[in-house]
């Protein structure tokens, strides 16, 4: 088999890249380790920046997003038992973020890919990117008991944090990493969101909490938990109790509870690999970087990588210019580090750190108070939350 761009991974990065390349007439094949249902079953991001929405439009797959996505003009911070709205739109000249689940975005991209008759090989085993330092790269994989070879011009490593792409250049990568001493347990439930107009971030002496949503009838909530906790430790009842105890009394009394339809624990990590290009192999999305979810940046950063990468590949095939691919890594990393900084900052501000003593705690309280009373710092939060300009 031969294609112009071999894409490893059918998460949002790989699917969006495939769609943008297809629209530009560039042929691509995606190799995915899991089944399509498995990919759709992973409940992750929920908040899209305008850049991501625009990219979905550019890819011609935003019809449902434009109908069902819910714009948010503000977020709320809860601390010391009180709510503090931050007028994200007012502070950014009218910008918004959009609530639309990663699952829905993935489904839209999968449907468009199927409708266009493009090839995605699901359950591809032992995928190996090879010869990407030459001008004849290839990817081998196993399927139905046979080894297959996919020849190509470029390989896009869109295979997430645990993928094979970054692993295959391990000795050429510098890794920057920070692991946080806690995780989040998340619950999805078919109940109306407690705050349909804002995403609520809470910092209480019991730890972080987050109230988000997927639609007017589907909510997504998280609470900070020790890394040693297991999902089995958290009955629905315990989760709802704990969430209420971390919010202000008014919000707590308005939470509509119901059975969880998904419940999972995710560790929090900051990670960047440098560079993101190795000859004819590129890393994009979580394959190259991870942010803790507090700033809602992971999927959005993946979308920006894909914007730069698709642009670079289109330029190469249409204009025979290598300018875009030569500057890909540098351009992405500039934006990635700004999002890393923001995600680290808001994570540090909103969580309880087990090893933080009196002084650190008092400084955190002072910063929260400063934030909600300072237009300068609120504006900084707002402009990062809606996404920095490309
Ligand atoms: P993915 O989604 O991990 O997809 C990678 C795909 O590659 C496949 N794969 C392989 N395929 C072939 N061969 C191999 N050897 C392979 N190894 C892996 C995998 O099966 C998978 O299908 O990476 P991608 O596409 O880069 O997308 C990144 C996003 O998924 C991620 O950044 C976001 O979910 C992060 N995130 C959030 N981002 C936001 O922008 N806004 C949010 O509100 C937000 N909330 C979140 C989040 C992530 C969370 N968790 C669980 C980490 C909330 C949470 C709780
Ligand atoms: C979500 O809706 O899952 C969500 C929202 C905001 C975040 C992280 C996750 O910061």
From TrEMBL:
This enzyme's EC code(s): 1.14.13.2
Pfam families attached to this UniProt entry: FAD_binding_3
UniProt domain FAD-binding: residue ranges: 2-343
Record keywords, A-Z: FAD, Flavoprotein, Oxidoreductase
SUPFAM superfamilies per UniProt: FAD-linked reductases, C-terminal domain, FAD/NAD(P)-binding domain
Molecular-function GO terms, alphabetical: 4-hydroxybenzoate 3-monooxygenase activity; FAD binding
Biological process (GO), any one: benzoate catabolic process
Name assigned to this protein: 4-hydroxybenzoate 3-monooxygenase
Source organism (scientific name): Ramlibacter aurantiacus
């Amino acid at each position: 088999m031969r294609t112009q761009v071999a894409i490893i991974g059918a998460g949002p990065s790989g699917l969006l890249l495939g769609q943008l390349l297809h629209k530009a007439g560039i042929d691509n094949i995606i190799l995915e380790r899991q089944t399509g249902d498995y990919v759709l079953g992973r409940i992750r991001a929920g908040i899209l920046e305008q850049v991501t929405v625009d990219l979905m439009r550019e890819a011609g797959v935003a019809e449902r997003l434009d109908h069902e996505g819910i714009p948010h003009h503000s977020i709320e911070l809860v601390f010391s038992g009180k709510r503090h709205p931050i007028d994200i739109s007012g502070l950014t000249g009218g910008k918004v973020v959009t609530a639309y689940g990663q699952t829905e975005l993935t489904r839209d991209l999968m449907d468009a890919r199927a409708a266009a008759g493009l090839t995605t090989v699901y359950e591809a085993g032992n995928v190996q990117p090879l010869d990407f330092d030459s001008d004849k790269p290839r990817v081998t994989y196993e399927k139905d008991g046979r080894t297959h070879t996919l020849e190509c011009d470029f390989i896009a490593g869109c295979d997430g944090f645990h993928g094979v792409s970054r692993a295959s250049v391990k000795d050429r990568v510098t890794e920057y990493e920070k692991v946080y001493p806690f995780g989040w347990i998340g619950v999805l439930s078919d109940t109306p969101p407690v705050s349909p107009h804002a995403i609520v971030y809470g910092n209480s002496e019991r730890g972080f909490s987050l109230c988000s949503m997927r639609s007017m009838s589907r909510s997504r909530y998280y609470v900070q938990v020790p890394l040693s906790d297991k999902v089995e430790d958290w009955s629905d009842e315990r989760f709802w109790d704990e969430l209420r105890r971390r919010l202000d009394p008014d919000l707590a009394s308005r939470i509509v509870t119901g059975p969880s339809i998904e419940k999972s624990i995710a560790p929090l990590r900051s990670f960047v690999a440098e560079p993101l290009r190795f000859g004819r192999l590129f890393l994009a999305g979580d394959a190259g970087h991870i942010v803790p979810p507090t700033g809602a940046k992971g999927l959005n950063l993946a979308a920006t990588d894909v914007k730069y990468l698709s642009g670079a590949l289109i330029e190469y095939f249409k204009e025979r210019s290598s300018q875009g691919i030569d500057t890909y890594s540098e351009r992405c990393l500039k934006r990635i580090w700004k999002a890393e900084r923001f995600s680290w900052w808001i994570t540090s501000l909103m969580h309880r750190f087990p090893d933080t003593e009196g002084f650190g705690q008092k400084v955190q309280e002072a910063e929260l108070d400063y934030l909600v009373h300072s237009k300068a710092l609120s504006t900084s939060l707002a402009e990062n939350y809606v996404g920095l300009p490309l």
